[in-house]
Amino acid sequence: MKIMIDAREVMAYPGETILEVCRRENIFIPTLCYHPAFKGQGACRMCMVEIIDSSGQKRLVASCTYPVSDGLKVITSSEKIKKTRKTLAMLIAGRSQASPFAQEIAEEYKVKPLFFKGFENEKCILCRLCINACEEMGSAVLAAVSRGVDKRIETPYAEGAEECIGCKACAEICPTGAIEVKEENGQRIIWHKTFDLIKCANCGKEFATPEQIKFIEDKTGRKMEKFLCEGCRKRQTAEVIKEFSV
Amino acid sequence: MVKAADEGKMLADIREILDNYPPEERYILAVMQDMQKRFNYLPKAGLKTLAFYVGVPLSRVYAMASFYKAFSLTPKGQYVFRVCDGTACHIKGSKILIEQLYKCLGIRPGETTPDGRFSIETVNCLGACALAPVVVVNDRVYAKVIPGDVEKIIREYGGYAHEGKNED
Amino acid sequence: MKEKMKIESSVNKVMVCCGTGCTANGARQVLAAFMDKLRDNPNFEVVPVLKATGCNGWCEKGPIVKIMPQDISYCHVKAEDVDEIIDRTLLKGEPVKRLLYRDPVKKEFVTSIHQTDFYRKQHKIALRNIGEIDPGSIDDYIERGGYKALKKVLKEMTPDEVIEEILKSGLRGRGGGGFPTGLKWQACKNTPRFPKYIICNGDEGDPGAFMDRSVMEGDPHTIIEGMLICAYVLKAERGFIYVRDEYDLAVKYLRQAILDAREHGFLGENILKSDLRFDIELVRGGGAFVCGEETALIKSIEGYPGEPHDKYVFPTEKGLWGQPTVINNVETWANIPVIILDGAEKFASLGTVGSPGTKVFSLVGKVVNTGLVEVPMGITLREIIYDIGGGVPEGRQFKAVQTGGPSGGCIPASHLDLKVDFDTLTREGSMMGSGGIIVMDDTTCMVEVARYYTNFLAGESCGKCTPCREGIRALVEILTRICKGEGELSDLQLLRDISEVMQEASLCALGRTAPNPVLSTLRFFEDEYIAHIVEKRCPAGVCPALTTFYIDPELCTGCTLCKRNCPVDAIKGEAKKKHEIIEDKCIRCGECYRRCRFKAVKVR
Ligand SMILES: Cc1cc2nc3c(=O)[nH]c(=O)nc-3n(C[C@H](O)[C@H](O)[C@H](O)COP(=O)(O)O)c2cc1C
Ligand code: SF4
Ligand code: SF4
Ligand code: SF4
Ligand code: SF4
Ligand code: FES
Ligand code: FES
Ligand code: FES
Description:
The structure holds three protein chains of three kinds.
Chain A: E1 2-5, E2 8-11, H1 18-24, E3 48-52, E4 58-62, E5 73-75, H2 79-95, H3 100-108, H4 129-137, E6 143-145, E7 152-154, H5 169-173, E8 181-184, E9 187-190, E10 193-196, E11 198-199, E12 206-208, H6 210-220, H7 230-245
Parallel strand pairs in A: 1-5
Antiparallel strand pairs in A: 1-2, 3-4, 3-5, 6-7, 8-9, 9-10, 11-12
Helix pairs in contact in A: 2-3
Chain B: H1 4-19, H2 28-39, H3 44-54, H4 58-67, E1 79-84, H5 87-90, H6 94-105, E2 118-123, E3 135-137, E4 140-142, H7 149-156
Parallel strand pairs in B: 1-2
Antiparallel strand pairs in B: 1-3, 3-4
Chain C: H1 2-10, E1 13-17, H2 20-24, H3 27-38, E2 49-53, E3 65-68, E4 72-74, H4 82-91, E5 101-102, E6 109-110, H5 117-120, H6 138-143, H7 148-156, H8 159-169, H9 181-189, E7 197-202, H10 211-218, H11 220-234, E8 238-244, H12 248-263, E9 279-285, H13 294-302, E10 325-329, H14 330-342, H15 344-348, E11 358-365, E12 371-376, H16 381-388, E13 398-403, E14 409-412, H17 422-427, E15 436-441, H18 446-460, H19 466-483, H20 490-505, H21 509-513, H22 516-524, H23 526-533, E16 549-551, H24 561-565, E17 571-572, E18 580-581, H25 591-595, E19 601-603
Parallel strand pairs in C: 1-2, 7-8, 7-10, 8-9, 11-15
Antiparallel strand pairs in C: 1-3, 3-4, 5-6, 11-12, 13-14, 13-15, 16-19, 17-18
Helix pairs in contact in C: 7-11, 7-14, 8-9, 8-11, 10-11, 10-12, 11-14, 18-19, 19-20, 20-22
Bound molecules: flavin mononucleotide, iron/sulfur cluster (SF4) (4 copies) and FE2/S2 (inorganic) cluster (3 copies).
């Protein structure tokens, strides 16, 4: 099917969202809670765009959840959209006061954050990407706890969870650095839990937890012979390929 | 804290509640309601068993327990003062009643006195707006409560005013 | 059957209101006294029938006891009064005067509550049976024409004819949105996927409103019948009633009603010997206002936290478990059987063109008669508040009326002649909501009211999307500082800017309507905001930081009323002498201010 984005006609497929089409077409839309690996959540509302319905009425919708339909007309930039994003930036930076990432958003949109009381040390913007990542990994340890203005990301009972394998996938996807990971003396501390770290057989870098290795082994059903960190694995793979190509 | 015998009883109770429902996700809420009624809170063992029973991560069950207002993750007091702060009660002075309770018991809504006797909660509307402001203690309804009544009501349950010694 | 009915109608019926309000006032004790004293009473040839009914809507006058067929109503009945009622009314047929309602203006006793001003302007459709039947008895419901509408559609109407009839009636959803019910059913019917589900939304989380509760606990079968008619239209086989668990009585009677309906063959297989099969499950909600929002409610039934999601695809297409689903409000369901039986024309002849029929409102706050009223749409706010509600009590001044629940708006005195229907209220920056009407007088501070509602929503928002969660946080923070006297004039623009984005960008209607209380009070009562910000004064005497009470010695009669009601002994003075407030001790509760009959307590 065909849809119109900013007066440009583009191809779209049933089941796609506006955002997915835009990404493919290299049309920039800011997002905070979207990651291509997961379904759109519609939580941060940064990705709002305008659509024009059949009667000519304009309406703001979240592009990461709005499904395309034939003939859809989308506007990705307008005064209204700008104002919306500006106000959202003001609120996000007002909440996430300790995160440079959030402060930069406010600078980018040229707004003064509305600093909330009691949020001086807050980093999290509640994008929930960490929850998605952990769920995707298969551990599903993290939860959006409580509701309303008290919403926060936690493990149940704010204690180390049995299922957590210390993979830090959550911390890696987190845009704000809100998830604390401490690595020292051959150990990793994350989400109230301490893990031993295994050294890379090649470079000696501490790179994974035994729980993580076991998790991968259980999942793939194969025992790992050699523990290699990501960098070394890439390098060695490259060498293998080179050998083949000779 | 919890004695072994109590714990055994609790686990038996949990099992009994679970036995009433098939292991399906849509009964999580119902099971939690029953547990809350039985134990006055949702015990950790209960949530863990429930998560295992229906086959969902504990994080999901925990998120639900903390989302819905009917549930509490810590034991509630023996006497729960539910102060209606619905609109009808609010404009007839429920806020002052909450302040008076704080003065007398030293706790705010959502808290329990250290001795485990009293808890305060606010509720949205008890459906008795014509009798505003309304306070319910366990199952007893107090209608058209004025600030001066608060101390009297607490005394009825063996509490004394200025229990929390909060003068400010 | 005929024979039995004839005897019944000549026999006295004693109907004790046992709705939530009357129960709180001691109705159960009255009921027990009647039971005790009527049982094996040798003075009767035929012992009167005793019934516990649902809410008569006038809880303030409760416990209410009605005697039929004479149609005598007693107010504030106590267990001690039962002997006298039995003796004089049931045996001798005369009313007990002191228990009758006395019209405060005409000073006359009124025998039946149906003749009072409170009831006369009402027109009952959704509430037609409530107070007249025992909600625990399916026979009572059938006796008043219950399940006839179901029989009619099964025998005489095709599904499309039913939809046609509902469309013609113009019925719009009573849960707040006002979406045409016929269109919703049609959309779901046209979705060619099965199974389909039907949901009754009985979450009713509005603070200060209890319309749906009274239907669920006073006439549960009407909901079941409404859902059955829809099941016939959609060929749906399963329905769910989502009800707040705190509503003990509603849960009890709904449960009973489902069991009885199964037993009578109204639920289950081959309903009334047709090929309709349908059953209903009760789902007890966990206490979350946002779960009234339909996508959140669906999540909640599925066993998740009640977080809404974008509704770009409607539940009629993708609802419960991804299947086509019709979800309607309790009161909407209660209207269905009547429309089918009496016809769409009759229904549409009531109310306005855009909003036909009646609406149930819960009228509370600073008004003489508080309670539930069902009135034709298009009635003015003035009629509701003054003619039915009897106006503002204690000689206070009317200030505003709030409609539409926590995200509704406040309407000032100058707009009292507004017609109450979906479109008019929305145009004025408020909304119909589910039907709460809260009357406020000059002792209500509009800034504090805005803060109260916003703060309520702060705890009730699901917290998923940024504009709602952080926007509400911002509004509360700003309003709180204004109430404390720390606001600035620039705050008013900030409130407006944030509100605008919340309205446009929030994920669900909770966030989109959350700024209504702020915007409507800003629009009509900006002067109060300015008094707080510039003059550091709360004109209503509510915000403690900005209020000082004093007693005007000219007006004080020394009646001691204030002194007796002060919770902290902050008033000194002897009987018949001037009283005085000790400012240091005073906690600014306003009790003396509201109570003084001579308006001697003043706000500085
Ligand atoms: C925050 C919020 C709360 C709501 N609460 C209720 C409620 O308590 N009861 C209800 O019937 N509808 C409620 N609604 C409206 C429902 O989402 C839905 O529109 C309604 O149940 C549809 O039924 P109707 O068409 O019969 O009105 C609420 C909506 C929102 C946004
Ligand atoms: S470190 Fe733990 S919480 Fe984080 S993604 Fe891995 S398993 Fe989940
Ligand atoms: S911790 Fe990081 S990833 Fe998780 S919600 Fe907060 S900001 Fe997003
Ligand atoms: S608008 Fe509020 S209640 Fe609705 S999804 Fe967003 S945070 Fe949740
Ligand atoms: S405002 Fe309240 S505390 Fe102050 S004098 Fe009046 S009754 Fe007493
Ligand atoms: S990216 Fe669409 S709402 Fe966050
Ligand atoms: S507002 Fe308190 S009972 Fe309704
Ligand atoms: S409960 Fe009896 S009149 Fe409302």
